[in-house]
Amino acid sequence: MTSFLGHEKQQQVFLNSFAKGTLHHAWILAGRKGLGKAGFAGQAAQFLLDSHNDPKDFSVGEDNQAASLLTAGSHPDFRLIRRGAKGDKEEKKARDGGVDVLEEHELARNIKIAQIRGLQPLFATQPAISTYRVVVIDAIDDLERGGANALLKNLEEPPKNTVFLMVSHAPERLLPTIRSRCQILRFDPLTDDQMGTILSQKISRVDHSELQALITAGEGSPGQALQYVDAGLGELEQIANDIMRGGDRNNILKSDLARKLSLKAATPRYRAFLARAPSMMAQYIKASNSAKNIAAVEKWREATYLAAMAGPKALDNQAVVFQLGTLMASLAEHNHRA
Fold first, then answer.
1. 3-state SS string for the chain
2. What fold does the segment set 8-186 form as a domain?
3. Which one, 58, 131, 148, 207, has least CB within 10 Å?
4. 1: pLDDT strictly greater than 50
């Protein structure tokens, strides 16, 4: 059996609705990116398409027909809608290895209206082998305006025995007419224990200190944590924390950090550090009760802006890391004054 770890409250809401025969035809799975909403949608789809499902158990069998067909991408009653390849070159790469092999910059900016219109043949007939038809949209935030309007028609007059499961990282930005026709299921950050279990399953070899660093960096989001797996985050976090706790009057730690992240081969680690540094500072400010210290908060704002602008403005890696280290060191000074 395959089970879905975490989000037990959300599982129960879905199961109760199913058991009572009041299953809504359209669900918005809302929450921060990386919380596991797409995984939940996949598990819910398999649950609905399994003719032997237990209304009290969100787990599903791995060896049934629905699971096999979904894994093969050939279930006749299921559709997954997401951004496709950006151009012909990316399209060929996707054909050879699947859409999952494409990187962010190789994907189209939006889910196209043609993809939504392409669902109509599915709705023109009865479900082929399951009680339900299931459409997963990951993420509905990516729909271009025409696609959103086309989807709205299906939500207003839902095809019988069809369930839409739509991932959203920013539900407040969706058309109000779409939101009003959906049941919103909100997802919260996972606990540290849940994070540890999931990351241990996803990463083949990770020591305890690195795992703890990933849990902290993820902030309850496994997807966010997994972005840092190859960055040696444990070492970077240790240096950053040493700077924030004790300062760095002789610039030894800042210089060491800048050297480690300035080489071309260290570009992935550098990007991970840029993404992580403002959060590390925010966590330190909160833990040290410096949140009311205006000067400390201002340093965090400076770091956030610098990290965001470093890439677009092609700033020197070594200089950026050194300046971020300087901003981190200032937190120790503010904390000591407090």
1. CECCCCCHHHHHHHHHHHHCCCCCCEEEEECCCCCCHHHHHHHHHHHHHCCCCCCCCCCECCCCHHHHHHHHCCCCCEEEECCCECCHHHHHHHHHHCHHHCCHHHECCCECHHHHHCCHHHHCCCCCCCCCEEEEEECHHHECHHHHHHHHHHHHCCCCCEEEEEEECCHHHCCHHHHCCCEEEECCCCCHHHHHHHHHHHCCCCCHHHHHHHHHHHCCCHHHHHCCHHHCHHHHHHHHHHHHHHCCCCCHHHHHHHHHHHCHHHHHHHHHHHHHHHHHHHHHHHHCCCCCCHHHHHHHHHHHHHHHHHCCCCCCHHHHHHHHHHHHHHHHHHHHHC
2. Rossmann fold (3.40.50)
3. 207
4. no
